[in-house]
Each structure stands twice: as C-alpha cells, then as structure tokens.
Specification:
Elements: H1 3-45, E1 49-50, E2 73-74, E3 83-88, H2 93-103, E4 107-109, E5 121-125, E6 128-134, E7 146-148, H3 152-161, E8 166-168, E9 175-181, E10 187-193
Parallel strand pairs: 3-6, 7-10
Antiparallel strand pairs: 1-2, 4-5, 5-6, 8-9, 9-10
C-alpha cells in the first residue's frame, strides 16, 4: 500500500469515528427524552394498570426501545367461573345427550337461538354450565375440567356399572380423586375432600 493510500484510510477512519460519536450523542439525548416520557406515562397509569411480572421494566433502555414493545396488563375483576367446554365430533349430539343426561344425570339447558346453528349441547352442572361444542380433528389430550363431588365411591361404582372408562388418579393429601372418559375420550376429573391421608383406590380393569 502506498503512503497516500495509508493517509486516506486513516483520514476516513477518523471521520467515521467522529460521525459515530456525534450520532451517539444525538441518540442519547433522544433516548433520555423517551425514557423520561415513558416514566411519566408509567406513573400516570399506575393507579389503573399493573405490570404483568415484578421483573418487567417500567421503561426500556434507549438502545432497545424500538425493538421491544411496552406492555401493561389491565386489572380484571373476575366474579366467578361461568362455564367449561368440551368438544365432540360433528353430528354426535344425540350420543352425547344420552351419556350426559342418562349416565351422568345432568340437566340439559337450551342454547340461545343465535348459537344453535353452531351445534353442540349445554348442560347445567352445579352452579355453572358445561358446554359441549362440535369440532373437527379431535385429538386425545391431558386438558380436562375437574369438579368437586360428594360420595366419590358411589360415583365410582355407578360409572363401573355403566361401563364408563375410569382412570384412577394418584392420591394426594386431603383429596380422593378419579377421572373418567366420555364416549369421545374427553377426560373429566372428580375429586372429594377428605380428612387425613387418602386411601389408594383399586384400579379398574
């Protein structure tokens, strides 16, 4: 490399460093203003909004403010659980109705007219509702509702007499538990509170 070429490279490097420094000062000034503005917004919303997790920052470092979204979560005042839903294949409403009313003894309630075209059934269960919806491509899953009951042993015998598939759950202190499956392989857990250690139930075959 010639001497003139070396001087040109050094000069370009010097000018580049100066330009980057100037841009850095400008970014810092802007980010300082942005951080101050976000702090003010955070204080203003503090009375009606919460941050999802204690470790979640109220404002972001200026280097990342464009690449990170600012999230806040609104406080919800949940009053009660209204319903749970299980799904069955299309066209199987009568089979579901027979199982849930005749085997489980649930009371069917009428769906609103606007929702009837979508198919399915609704039942009253304790002080909430059980909705049976219809959908394609069902797969077996661990997801399930759980209901507290009285007389779990009698329920177990009733399910066995009606040849309902039962899964004995692992006992936990203070609870007796079992799960059963409807004709569509939906799992439903039943539990009963007990005093002391639960007794292991005999496994059904």
């Amino acid at each position: 490399m010639q001497a003139n070429d070396v001087r040109v490279v050094e000069r370009n490097k010097f000018l580049s460093e100066k330009l980057d420094g100037a841009r850095g000062h400008q970014r810092n000034d802007k980010c300082g203003m942005m951080n101050d503005e976000l702090k003010e917004r955070s204080n203003a919303f503090h009375s009606s909004f919460i941050i999802p997790h204690p470790s979640f920052p109220l404002y972001f470092p200026c280097a990342h403010w464009k690449s990170v979204l600012y999230f806040v979560a609104m406080k919800m005042r949940i009053k009660r659980l209204d319903h749970v839903q299980l799904c069955i294949p299309f066209g199987e409403e009568e089979k579901a109705r027979e199982f849930y009313t005749q085997v489980l003894g649930l009371e069917e309630i009428e769906k609103p007219e606007a929702l009837k075209p979508s198919g399915g059934l609704w039942f009253k269960i304790a002080d909430i509702q059980l909705h049976i919806g219809v959908e394609e491509g069902q797969t077996k899953s661990k997801r399930h509702p759980a209901f507290e009951v009285e007389g779990l042993e009698q329920i177990r015998e009733h399910l066995r007499e009606n040849r309902v598939k039962i899964k004995e759950e692992i006992p936990v202190p203070g609870l007796r538990r079992l799960s059963f499956f409807d004709p569509f392989e939906n799992r439903i857990e039943l539990l009963e509170k007990s005093n002391g250690e639960p007794k292991p139930a005999s496994v059904s075959t």
